[in-house]
Write a structure and sequence with these properties.
Length: 800
């Protein structure tokens, strides 16, 4: 925890202050609306709203995470769905079995069964907010009904809970409308402008590095580092825009009423631009000397890059507007980077060729109008309910049975133990477990820790507020505002996060927003104890189900990533069929797997070690960096291969040409080197004991002996580190020589083939760069896995 914590008391940037103040104001306004209705409203309303605590909980669940009007408008329908899902069956159950007949065990059983039904549907069919509201209602309707016994009305009791939920939802909606609506549409437009400026600045820096004649290595490295520093801000802007896309769809009816037009932000195109910029950065990062000599040979390339900069600026300028004038796209040059007619003689010139290859892709990615992008992206974001219902048999089979059983046991046990400790306050044991439900994995011990700390912090603040302003209820509400601001910082910190921030807010509101419930200190102590009971039960069930540690899942994810990389390498071919290839599917799978691995690594970093060996997060972060680079390199390699396959496949007699076949053989040999190394790294990463690894090393020694005795094997080096840096460079030089033979034999120097020849040269050079860098990244993975093996087996000496 010490390493992952971050100080929440440091002075933040002005934008963070503004965000926290705005969030605190909206939350305070919503809580004030609920407080005024429940504390000072008409008696009939107060009689109907008998669960003000859940009104506060509902509005906090809706509004606390920087909600916009679209989010809150969607929450209205989600709350209605959740209420029907929970209250309807509860009314039938309480009518059939009167609450007076319930016991601790039967109440916990009813809560567990109802929770199982709510959680069971597959992830994505029901929104997380709807499940949390529904689960919270289930806990209250059964536990409080049992606590009140014969005084519980089986019909009005659930309806009063539904009315309390409605009050919290309406308060949230009003808070997002007053004093002016907070629209995700305007936020996305603002973030898009910042993202566009960030991307253009990043591109300008990269072009400056390649174009300046007086550039030296130190200055170039500084500029490339400056460009990489922009990526952090760019990633946050990407996430902010993508997180608002669903909210924008819910705001569309309001925009139409006020005749405000909005076009979906072309995020797919921006992501393609970002990918190409990463490729240009990678090219400059691997360049050994500056200035680039190629620039002095052809000054037209500078003009091409300047044209590219202007073109990208024009095509991204309009962003989420209706259309881009057609004349602006026609001004973009159609003849771009056609000065490359010879394959580079050595591998040292490959980064420069790869830089311009990425620049060419960047120009192609921005050669269509924004209006067409809008239509395409809108179609992607629009709901695909017809497709879902068409696949209902597969959907029905895709349920999360085990997680549903685990959560229902957690909630049922928490309710049972809470009622055993205190019948009147038993629901406080189950409510925190219910409203903090997550659909995916959660770091159990850390989540329980921050929830407990947040609950204690908020409760203590609430007790102090009640003590200071004991006789002044309105002032007690005013005292919540600084706490909301503090909690906004808490939920943005690495130490507490959203779970800790929400717990802190709820802890304070439930004490300061109540009256006539006895001494606040007694209520606070009872609630803290019940909360600890509920969280302890949740941890106990997780331990009983023996979930795999995040560190173990990270190791499994690494093995799976290496397996997909091996499949991707096997899909590389110069003379494959055109159209969609296996390589595309493998790249998509690899990207998803690397993202999943990244989640496990982040979770493992904050996971307590207990009696286990500590997690080597530094080594895994290096592996993540190499795997991410491999995703990009395979992506660019796929682009190069598609064009080459298309050209080599145009005429059937092309397959008979000896040079193309020899180039394919050279590619197969390089593939075999990479694949062999990846295969053995995957085997090592899957091994569970050091004894198995030692046996594997002995087997490899025997293979080496067979090589010395003259016996042939499938590959001459099973680890690229054995081949070495010079060996890799020699392999790439041979590939470039074969590529030169192909270009000279297939394409003459006629004017009508200059453009085609230039594209072939750039594609083959880009493929050579990708192969070389892939081998280097695999070598880095080898070193990292060796370090990981030594870390996990400090007392064993193994020379891989």
């Amino acid at each position: 925890m010490a390493k992952s914590s971050s100080s929440v008391l440091c002075i933040p940037c002005p934008k963070l202050w503004q965000a926290c103040l705005a969030s605190a104001f909206r939350t305070a306004l919503a809580c004030t609306i609920v407080g005024c209705v429940t504390l000072f409203g008409p008696q009939k309303v107060q009689t109907l709203i008998t669960f003000p605590a859940f009104s506060y909980v509902s509005l906090i669940l809706i509004i606390i995470n920087d909600a916009t009007f679209g989010d809150t408008f969607r929450a209205c329908w989600l709350a209605l769905y959740a209420t029907i899902q929970a209250i309807g069956p509860a009314m039938l159950t309480l009518w059939a079995v009167h609450p007076a007949r319930l016991s601790n065990a039967t109440t916990a059983l009813a809560v567990g069964v109802a929770a199982f039904v709510v959680v069971l549907p597959f992830d994505g069919s029901t929104h997380l907010l709807a499940k949390r509201i529904s689960l919270g209602q289930i806990v209250l309707v059964y536990v409080i009904g049992y606590a009140n016994g014969v005084h519980t009305d089986p019909l009005m009791h659930p309806l009063r809970l539904a009315a309390s939920t409605a009050l919290g939802v309406i308060a949230s909606l009003l808070a997002l409308l007053l004093p002016y609506p907070r629209l995700a549409t305007f936020e996305v437009k603002r973030n898009y402008k910042q993202l566009r400026k960030n991307m253009l600045k990043r591109m300008q820096v990269l072009i400056k590095v390649i174009c300046e004649d007086d550039m030296n290595c130190a200055t170039a490295n500084a500029l490339v580092s400056n460009a990489k520093s922009l990526v952090t801000t760019q990633t946050k802007l990407f996430q902010a825009i993508m997180s608002r896309q669903d909210s924008i769809r819910w705001e569309t009816p309001l925009l139409k009423i006020f005749k405000l037009h909005y076009c979906w932000t072309p995020m797919k195109r921006l992501q393609q631009i970002d990918t190409n910029l990463r490729g240009m950065e990678l090219a400059l990062k691997t360049t050994n000397s500056f200035p680039i000599n190629l620039m002095s040979l052809n000054e037209d390339l500078k003009h091409d890059l300047t044209t590219l900069e202007e073109h990208v600026t024009l095509t991204t300028k309009h962003g989420p507007s209706l259309t881009v004038p057609e004349s602006t796209t026609k001004k973009a040059t159609t003849i771009f980077l056609q000065s490359f007619h010879t394959i580079p003689a050595t591998h040292q010139d490959l980064p420069t060729y790869f830089f311009f290859f990425c620049a060419k892709l960047l120009q192609n990615n921005t050669s269509f109008t924004t209006s067409s992008s809008c239509v395409r992206d809108k179609a992607q974001i629009s709901p695909n309910s017809k497709r879902k219902w068409a696949n209902w048999p597969r959907i029905m089979g895709n349920t999360n049975l085990v997680p549903a059983i685990k959560f229902s046991l957690s909630l049922g046990l928490a309710v049972f133990m809470g009622l055993t400790y205190s019948k009147e306050n038993g629901f406080w044991a189950g409510l925190p477990v219910a409203v903090s439900y997550v659909s995916g994995r959660e770091p159990t011990f850390r989540a329980a820790n921050v929830k407990a700390q947040g609950t204690v912090l908020g409760t203590v603040y609430g007790v102090l507020g009640c003590f200071v302003f004991e006789r002044f209820l309105p002032i007690r509400f005013v005292s919540l505002l600084p706490w909301f601001i503090f909690a906004s910082f808490l939920q943005r910190s690495r130490m507490y996060g959203p779970a800790g921030g929400i717990s802190a807010v709820i802890g304070a509101v439930l004490i300061l927003g109540r009256k006539n419930f006895g001494p606040p200190s007694e209520f606070a102590i009872a609630r803290i104890i019940e909360t600890f009971i509920g969280l302890s039960c949740s941890i106990l069930v997780d331990l009983i189900f023996m979930p795999k540690r995040a560190s173990t899942l990270a190791k499994v994810g690494l093995s799976q990533s290496l397996a997909i990389i091996g499949d991707s390498i096997g899909s590389l071919s110069l003379i494959g069929v055109t159209g969609k290839t296996d390589l595309e599917d493998n790249i998509r799978k690899l990207k998803m797997q690397v993202n999943e691995l990244r989640k496990f690594v982040v979770e493992a970093e904050i996971e307590p070690n207990f009696w286990f060996l500590s997690f080597h997060n530094e080594c895994f972060n290096k592996l993540l960096g190499s795997l991410s680079n491999l995703v990009d390199l395979l992506h660019f390699g796929d682009h190069a291969l598609k064009f080459l396959q298309q050209e080599f496949h145009k005429e059937d007699e092309t397959y008979e040409k000896e040079d193309v076949n020899m180039l394919q053989d050279e590619l197969e040999h390089i593939k075999e080197l990479i694949w062999s190394s990846i295969q053995h790294l995957e085997e090592i990463s899957r091994m569970e004991s050091i004894k198995i690894l030692e046996e594997e090393v002995e087997r490899k020694k025997k293979i080496s002996s067979d090589l010395e005795s003259g016996k042939s094997t499938k590959c001459d080096a099973w680890m690229l580190s054995i081949l070495g840096k010079e060996g890799i460079e020699n392999k790439i030089d041979c590939f470039l020589q074969r590529s030169t033979s192909v270009v000279e034999s297939l394409y003459d120097g006629s004017e009508n083939q200059k453009e085609l020849k230039s594209q072939i040269v750039m594609s083959l050079s880009a493929l050579g760069f990708c192969l070389k860098t892939i081998m280097q990244e695999v070598m880095e993975i080898e070193h990292s896995i060796k370090e990981l093996v030594r870390w996990n087996n400090p007392n064993s000496e193994i020379n891989l």
